């Protein structure tokens, strides 16, 4: 099998009707895949997609490419593998309709043989569209990789090797392999499949072989159970990966095809008394919900960007992700396997009832089985995948027919893959929108003050109502793990009412992690928590913002951020990969950080009234450099697991305050801003447990450009990430000295994206300039070939800075 990246030589432009094309229309632009056709369009407050899409427009886009098909391919089988096209992809080969796939997230394959012209150039066009069909920024176009696959007519199809590990102990693991052989000729063929397993060090540890008779057009499955001695188990702490190579040969020994896959040896167990166990050890899921966009890259799914997100999420304390609300990319699954991050992979956001005007509910009833099959085919060999989620906050879930749909989906996933658990992100309120008046009456009868509580508390109380319990009982019963979105009020009562129920917090409010994690640790049947969100994202603009209500012209808008809000502003990590202060608080709550952490509320806003949403965090930064007069009042938070925290400025105590779990792991100090060194010291029983210091920037500021990796590969999955900062001679970054920086790239690369964590902005991601946010920005370069790449950043009033990366 030849599997070639099909990334270069494409153009994209608006899809033109016949008369528009005759008139000339807009000129297509050259692009390299993966590519997001929406990212560089003009945003507008009048966008019909509105706040959901971050005020981007939609559209219909056409990608085109001309490619050569050698004459000798006439005797081969040629396919095109699309990992994801958003949305309603229509593929034409040489002007002929070849395929259609409504889902924007399911991978699909186009059998190209019938449409190719051998020995001459061929033309492929792909149409994609997006218009009022998503509750978040979806992007559009061929945003995930495409491969050209050429193989013998007798071959192993894509995803034709499935590996499971049904029997594992310390001394021996049984690796069960199923390999499909497909014969597209008119004659029966005798073949042989040989398997080799290599350990994580690349050493062959086991081999096997079996003959396979392949009848015409009838898939044949070759199976073998291979013993691996002294297996190295895959876990979040030791993500050991084995490699299996399957080789298909003819009777004369000639190789017909080969396929390679990585896999992990591990066991999964689940029960309400010991929770989730991996390799016999109980694991609590420290989970992050993540959307599919890559911030400054839009939705372009490039391997290095997916790996970087997983790597930084793991470093921030997460050990699991939930894909929200669609199947995660192959590249991200590979990254989760490598870094030891567990995956809840989600099928869809809708079933048969719509949430937006033209969403996937229009196609779901006809395509759900194909989408489920694509999900499992993609995931089945990845040890990181432990759960499939059949949906998110499904509207019809609380009805009998909705329950039947849930059962149908759960059983289909179990049929396709009996080795993983099935869950669903249930929101009892969303499932009972037409009955909430009844639920509110019930709650009011119990406690009249609950109706005066904030939105988050109301949701929790309503989710625990008897009405919700009755309506979701059947839908919950079809699951292995019941996922509750904002339903932590059910955790304890459900242990008594449904003693065999295992629960996961599939979506939770970020600022409640201290209370939520205490429940997860205390209740064995609650296996983890997935915060909304781990990584900030485009669209659902401003859902986690903090408004200052005394701002001139302020108008309450609920959770919707007015234009020009672009980002949700609800992630622990912003879209550039910079950790916000909530990330360090969460790390302390998880018990993963002993040192305290300083978070300073911006002194220019001190005392101002604010409006928040349940997804908001404080407007705080870890900085002690401010354009504020000495003596200006300022609020300082210290996150700490220690019993108490002392705050010092230049060695002088500013006071001692309690911290630890009894005080939500936070000590708050009302003090005055004065330049110097601010130090927080944590103590438990009088013994210091750690300290954290911030220093005021001094002297002249300069620009710095630092590449995260000096050496990168030169293929279509490669990127170079360069952190740009304004800082003093000691590397201290001031938070209120922002300015416009401009970036240029020399060498075999292009500037793929340039951005900051600023949620409210009109600056495009294409560059070449951007205004720093809290002194920071991120530039992303994409190599176009091997060689040295030099990125230079400049700004008014400071000398330029450069950094060199090598692509090879």
Describe the protein in words.
It is a single chain. The chain is mainly beta and 808 residues long. The chain has 5 domains: 2-151, Sandwich (Jelly Rolls), CATH 2.60.120.260; 161-263, Sandwich (Immunoglobulin-like), CATH 2.60.40; 273-536, TIM Barrel; 592-622 and 626-695, Immunoglobulins (Immunoglobulin-like, Sandwich), CATH 2.60.40; 702-807, Immunoglobulins (Immunoglobulin-like), CATH 2.60.40. The protein has 11 helices and 48 strands. The protein has an 8-stranded parallel barrel, surrounded by 4 helices. Strand 23 (320-323), helix 3 (330-339) and strand 24 form a beta-alpha-beta unit. Helix 2 (303-315) runs parallel beside helix 3, helix 4 (364-379) runs parallel beside helix 5 and helix 5 (400-416) packs parallel to helix 8. The chain is globular and about 90 Å long. Residues 443-454 have low confidence and may be disordered.
